[in-house]
Predict the 3D structure of the following.
Amino acid sequence: MYRASDRVRNERWLADLGRAADDLDIGSDARSVAEDLFLSTMPDAERSKPAAIAASLYAGGLIAGDRRSQGAVAEAVGVTRLTVQNRWKPLLEEAGLDPPTW
């Protein structure tokens, strides 16, 4: 869980998440889930935040049924597809969610 102050402190990163979601044409439900995941599992290191944004967007899309490919998410955020691939499942587990088993 996160505090309201986390949203304020990470306004820049949430703006980056919003821009990437716009580029991907992700719906409001998936965007909201992605924001919650990002704020709930946010890394301390600034350099890790773009990867967390990408993983949050990908996982948020899965949860909300508004899925985008790992490559498309990676490109929109500016990270590698491998970064998304390696981070989305641990992010869900850290948030207390079970990743899909397909």
Notes: Helices lie at 4-9, 11-24, 28-41, 49-64, 70-77, 81-94.
